[in-house]
Write a structure and sequence with these properties.
Rossmann fold, 24 helices, globular
Amino acid sequence: MNALSGSSTTALLADATRLHQDGRLEDAAPLYARVLAREADHPAALYFAGALALRRGRLEEARGLLLRAARARPDHPGTLTALAETLLRQGEAAAVVQLADQLIALDPRQAPAWFLRGSALARLGDAAGAAVALRGCLRLAPTHADAQQNLANALLDLDDLEGAVRHGRAAVALAPRSGAALAALGHLLIRAGQWAEATKLCAAAIRLEPGLAQAHWTHGIACLLVGDWTQGWAEYEWRRHHPDFAADFQRPALDPARRWRGETLAGQSLLVTAEQGLGDALMLARYLPLLAGRGATVRLECDAGLAGLLAQVAPCVVRGAAVGAHDLWVDQMSLPRLFATTPRSVPAAEGYLRADPARVAAWAGRLPAGRRIGLVWAGNPGHQDDRHRSLPQRMMAGLTAPEGACFVSLQVGPRGGEANAMPGVIDLSAGLTDWAETAAVLANLDLLISIDSAVAHCAGALGVPTWLLLPAVPDWRWLPDAGDRTPWYASLRLFRQTAPGDWAGVIEALGEALRTPRA
């Protein structure tokens, strides 16, 4: 007979708790189960068993046990804290805020409650509220490394780069052997424009935790920004394992064993899957003829709106439809690595798409004579960095068309209607029903002025002169030290912010360029 079989409930619980605290989780779990078999609503056993399940990562089990424990002891801080931690990991941020408020009402000196409140508010998009709560946590527990890191992230969302980096460094000082903390600081430094240090930090994070996807991915971005594309493309492959992106790569229809890794393509059928945004798909379409040139029969899986335009470089399968038979497949964002692309070897920078002649002629008849200048001032509002890359409408409205020229708006989406408030601007959005139509309009323009958008990529792919407006810390592809040109598109001229948020300076430079007589 087991020595504990005749133990009292109190003794069983004491033994289980001791084992739990010693880290002997597998030995503690059956003892909690025995207590609950005797007393199903024993509040302490429910709490400890729930906390153990949370520690083991069994979130549904923890949730059930802790909800029962909370019903038995609704004012027990430990139970409420563990339940809030569980719900936060399950993504139920609003419920976490309620529990944290309950805990703070019981005792405002509980640092974990403030931490949970701040973390949940950050998930809900309330960066200001998160910063207040996390500062409350740090007043009570200055050495709380996760609170330092989460506060850094909240300040980043509030565009307080200096504060974000300061707290990111504090998190690293408290956890110097944490690869996650080093990688997170690397991300903050990228946003602050300190790319060289970001690269070093991410490399250090990888040495500490070689399998940390966030560190590899952030390292890749930093390397791409500084022009080390060989290392950058290799590290960028880790996006498949990054917690924020991994779900996008769960595709049962694609056999991992048949992913193309650079082997010969002669006589093979290759499915290329567009990933990320529409601009990425347009930018990387330049590689499709190169794949065909290696002897592959190429098809592209892409967004329905792109299919009519991109069919000229490869037959298209609309995303969501059956992909059909294929020998090999590859993600489109892997093509620069597989072609060993460097800033000096970008293919087809002069252009690789053409607009349909019939559509071009149709639009030519609808547009006014004279010099035509297209405008795009906002991107997809769902983009994670849209608030930095898009302009307020009033900024673009401050531009004046040169004599003999007119502005036409290619702005679509939620902000397309803003063109109506811009005197003299012709709104074309109603006719831009797909990217083939957009390409036909672009082919009729003398110039496009655009923020970092898919329209700008389309113009570059067509070879249309384009002035691209960029934030101080641009997307990786725009090489911040490359001046006003980009290796990706010969027809683009870049206008960069000289300080974060300084769109006024960009618009002033644009206005001066528009007033300068063309050569």
